[in-house]
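FAQ

Q: What does a record look like?
A: Structure on top, sequence underneath. For example:
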């Protein structure tokens, strides 16, 4: 019997064996020719994954929060004004970072379980001059996915840039940075990018680079400053040695391998697969009669599901039972409902097989916890969705 548990939390996730093997390669110098090639080609592949042909990629050691901070430190100056779209816990984090850098923040807070509406955003944009709008494409605390296709054009109409937190979306949820006019997208390695935690990844479009270039005041964070990082990224892409701060050599090796696997699959195929996994999971949840945090499928993330525990069921016990079935799910994170729901990550290398396994473990644990339902009803619903997708 397999001893290792299947990790189905919304990051970190399961990683491909070849990605983990790449991490175990002997560490070399950050200016060795073979590493320069790995770094340079990773930057090139990032443009294809973000679908941002004219973007400037950055690879920096750190987690997603650092990626958020790098974006804000470079784009915001004291006295600026930002509009923060909040669909969960991570929207509030953006607001805190922006305030720390001396800018004023207005928030549009969606009711729990809902997304933000373009009309509300436009009303705000009309009422004030904002330098930037931030959005969490998928908020990992609620499983809400904001439809960001028209956000870039809307913000630009009112002279604002769009900064997108794609930590729980890039390389899973559909995102076309250039076509959708998103000025800066940031993510971290440990989610759909499918590399162990430790890399902050950013893609800055031309407006974001200009906003940094024409600042009136210096960037207030030394490590985050594009002034230090841009020459390094340009050098690696030109296949030349350079140094500002030591890169995470082994993680960059793993990133290179994962980006290759992502592009081998192809972005369109990858978005479609994530939608299918979401739909299979959603159909099972619905058939089981479970309530979820997002109230409508059109703004339900493809990268994770957020599900309320049924009434009268002990959540800790349910998760422990699922764990004993061999799968790790995550508890809640949103402060208003933290102990009332759980989360299943299904981004990255997952296939329908793991979704079926997860639903089976969930059904088995629900039976043990005393929840009443027709055993197999969730499995059948998901199976039907997966089979229908072949036709
Ligand atoms: N934004 C979102 C949407 C996230 O899901 C997370 C992590 N769960 C973060 C930001 C912060 O990333 P990290 O934990 O890697 O600092």
């Amino acid at each position: 019997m397999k001893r290792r548990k299947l990790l189905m939390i919304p990051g970190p996730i399961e990683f491909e064996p070849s990605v983990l093997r790449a991490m175990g390669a002997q560490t070399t110098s950050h200016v060795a020719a073979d590493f320069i090639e790995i770094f340079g080609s990773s930057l090139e592949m990032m443009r294809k994954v973000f679908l941002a042909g004219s973007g400037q990629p950055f690879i920096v050691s750190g987690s997603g929060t650092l990626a958020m901070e790098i974006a804000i430190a470079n784009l915001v100056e004291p006295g600026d004004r930002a509009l923060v779209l909040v669909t969960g816990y991570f929207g509030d984090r953006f607001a805190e970072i922006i305030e720390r850098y001396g800018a004023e923040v207005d928030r549009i807070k969606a009711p729990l379980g809902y997304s933000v509406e373009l009309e509300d955003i436009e009303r705000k944009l009309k009422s004030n001059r904002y330098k930037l709008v931030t959005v969490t494409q998928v908020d990992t605390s609620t499983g809400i996915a904001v439809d960001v296709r028209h956000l870039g054009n809307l913000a630009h109409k009112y002279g604002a840039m769009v900064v997108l937190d794609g930590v729980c979306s890039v390389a899973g949820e559909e995102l076309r940075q250039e076509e959708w006019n998103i000025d800066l997208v940031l993510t971290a390695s440990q989610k759909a990018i499918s590399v162990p935690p430790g890399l902050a990844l950013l893609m800055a479009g031309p407006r974001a680079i200009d906003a940094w270039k024409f600042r009136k005041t210096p960037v207030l964070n030394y490590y985050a400053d594009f002034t230090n990082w841009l020459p390094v990224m340009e050098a690696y892409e030109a296949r030349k040695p350079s140094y500002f701060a030591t890169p995470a050599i082994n993680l960059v090796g793993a990133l290179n391998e994962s980006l290759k696997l992502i592009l081998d699959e192809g972005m369109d195929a990858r978005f479609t697969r994530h939608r299918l996994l979401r739909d299979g999971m959603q159909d099972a949840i619905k058939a089981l009669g479970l309530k979820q945090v997002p109230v409508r499928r059109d703004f339900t993330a493809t990268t994770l599901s957020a599900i309320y525990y049924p009434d009268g069921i002990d959540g800790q016990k349910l998760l422990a039972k699922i764990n004993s079935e061999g799968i790790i799910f995550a508890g809640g994170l949103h402060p208003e409902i933290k102990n009332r729901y759980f989360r299943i990550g299904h981004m990255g290398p997952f296939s329908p097989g793991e979704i079926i396994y997860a639903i089976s473990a969930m059904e088995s644990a629900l039976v043990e916890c005393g929840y009443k339902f027709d055993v197999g009803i969730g499995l059948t619903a998901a199976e039907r969705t997966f089979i229908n997708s072949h036709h």
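Q: Is there anything notable about this one?
A: The chain has two domains: 6-11+267-388, 17-265.
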